[in-house]
Every structure is written in structure tokens, then in C-alpha cells.
Amino acid sequence: MRITAAEPGKVNFELDIEKHHTNRLGILHGATLAAMVDTGGSLAVASRGLYSTGVSTDLSVTYLNSGGKIGDLVKGEVICDKFGKTLAYTTIKFMNKNHEIVARGSHTKFVAVAWKDEKNITDQLKPKINESQASEATRTSF
């Protein structure tokens, strides 16, 4: 699995499908996608600055299409939807070579202990608020 792009809260990656990624039908195994949901969710949390990304509390995958066969490329995009003091929530989508959605997943992580790691860089990776967002936040805060 290769990371192809990353920014705070969002990571894109891809996987060249090899024999050990496939099931007995010769297509991408669902367990491979499930492992990528797990890894991808952790990467999304790490992209927000946590050195240790916590532990999984929930993981789900919905399979929609064939991911491909040996030699094909499957792409994933994972987003950290909510990044709290106790839990982090991520969603992921996978696309096949025909740009069809292969699967979508979600991954919830318990991060309360991870917040205590001295190697965290969460302050450096906080989302930037531009002037219009700051004005809107001020107007709607009361």
C-alpha cells in the first residue's frame, strides 16, 4: 500500500493487487479491503498529528463492486470526519480501475490515551480558519 497524498485529516493511497490480496475466485479479497480500512483509519488519525493512533472500537466495510484482479490497482481515500478527545471517526472509499466505488468503510478509534503522547504534533496540524470562517464562527457562537 502506497500513500499518494496526505493533508491533515485526509489520506489517499493505492494498492497494486497481487496474488496474496485475492480470494479463491482470483479477485480482491474482502479481508484485504478490511485491513486497508483499519490501516487507512489509523493513517487519517495520524494525519491530524497523533503519534500513537489509539485502538479500534468499531470497523465496518460495505462491499459494492469487485475490487479487481491480480495486476489491477485499487485506490482509497480516507477522511477523519471527527477528531475528539476520546474518539476519532473516519470514513473511507475505495475505487477500482474503472473509477467505480468498490467499497466504503468506517473506522472508529479510541484516542484518549493517545492524546498524552509527547510525540504528538496536533497543534501544528490544526485546520486553518480563514477570515470568513472566523466571522461565521463568531456570528453563530451565541
TrEMBL record:
It comes from the Eukaryota. InterPro entries: ACOT13, HotDog_dom_sf, Thioestr_dom. It holds the Pfam family 4HBT. Residues 26-101 form the Thioesterase domain. GO terms for molecular function: fatty acyl-CoA hydrolase activity. PANTHER family: PAAI THIOESTERASE, THIOESTERASE SUPERFAMILY MEMBER-RELATED. Belongs to the thioesterase PaaI family. This is Thioesterase domain-containing protein. Coiled coil: none annotated.
